[in-house]
Amino acid sequence: MEKIGLIIQIIKYIDLDYNYKIVVHKKKYKKVFFAEPKKLNWLSKPWDQIQESIVNNHKHFIKCLINNIKPDNDGEDNIKSLAMVFTSYDSYILKKEIKL
User: Fold this and answer.
1) Tens digit of each residue's pLDDT (9 = 90 or more) over 76-91
2) Strand boundaries in 3-49, DSSP class E
3) Cβ-based neighbour number of residue 52 at 10 Å
4) What's this model's pTM, rounded to 2 decimal places?
5) Domains of the chain: which residue ranges?
6) What is the pairing mode between strands 21-25 and 13-16?
């Protein structure tokens, strides 16, 4: 957590724009990046915006299977994320904070 805190202190804030423009604001300047995903010829809108990440995730998973290593994004994390979503619904319905 210390590393994240240090990054937040150095970078004042980040703007994420709808056209893949990322602006990093620091003390006296800002840096602009464009993070448009690679266009894959077998895609159509609106799916073209997310498919590159899915392709990269599958490549990583296959590499992990071949090398017998644990993938970065495993099912355990997904179950925890899903529990968080369902708990947020329960929290809204019950109008109270629920700790996980």
Assistant:
1) 878 888 888 899 989 9
2) 13-16, 21-25, 30-34
3) 15
4) 0.42
5) 2-72, 73-100
6) antiparallel
